[in-house]
Amino acid sequence: MSPTRSRHDLVEAAKLGLRRALGKADLSIGRDPYSHRVTRALTHHGIDTVIDVGANVGQYAALLRASGYRGHIVSVEPLDSAFAALSARAAKDPHWTALQNGVGEAPGTIDINISANSYSSSVLDINDAHLDAAPDSRYVGTQQIELTTVAHLVDQQGIDPARCLLKVDTQGYESQVLAGAALVLGKIAAVQLELSFVELYANQALFDDHVAALRGHGFELWSLDPGISDTDGRLLQCDGLFMRPGGTA
């Protein structure tokens, strides 16, 4: 065996060993992470602002930063406990704004169900399919929250929608968020949604519904990232990035 081939075999064996170890811990790594692909798309399309709806403790924004995104981020999160962590994180970054709000179809107040894992919290009732796949998503309390709209955020924050990504991760409440973006959705450059293949929350819109609706607004499905799966291996959820390849309307 040649020295080059020997080194190659050692590297491949090391990779396999690492994958096995991560697999036992229910973790994974892969080439070209989703956050890197999103960042490249933002750079390519000249997008310098991200509205991060359903920010939780700021995981999404932190991944964008780690992937090289340097534009403005407006993270919106309603839950008291999650917002405390989010605002502490954002305070260290002069181009990261944290707002404590829910986002929906119209301004007002509403009760949100708080899940044990925080990030599965939703205004909607949770279904058994979700609980079976992720038992720690069970609800443990409620909180009354203030609602705003995407259109109001764009106006309030002085955002140019033609240079903006709207990211929405609201656990089944995405349709209502998009309805509140109606006045600006035709100008927004990109949208990222959490997309479900089965109903994880009561009466939520599913993958095909969102894809068709966004195509109707001139967006093209650009990239996908798998999310949670059922115990039988069926993919239940993913994140989808939609771009307006021909520019804004």
Walk me through this protein's architecture.
The chain folds into 2 domains: 1-30; 32-243, 3-Layer(aba) Sandwich (Rossmann fold). Helix content is 33%, strand content 24%. The protein contains 8 helices and 10 strands. The protein has helices at residues 3-24, 34-44, 59-66, 80-90, 128-133, 150-156, 174-179, 207-216; strands at 49-53, 72-76, 96-99, 102-103, 108-115, 139-148, 164-168, 190-196, 220-226, 237-243. It has a 7-stranded mixed sheet. The chain has a 3-stranded mixed sheet with strand order 4-6-5. The radius of gyration is 19 Å and the shape is globular. The mean pLDDT is 90.
Total domains: 2
Distance between the first and last residues' Cα? 60 Å
Task: Specify the CATH homologous superfamily of the largest domain.
Answer: Vaccinia Virus protein VP39
CATH architecture of the largest domain: 3-Layer(aba) Sandwich
Strand adjacency order, main sheet: 3-2-1-7-8-10-9
| Secondary structure tally, helices | 8
Structural class estimated from helices and strands: alpha/beta
Give the ordered list of helices and strands.
HHEHEHEEEHEHEHEHEE
The radius of gyration over CA amounts to 19 Å
Total number of strands: 10
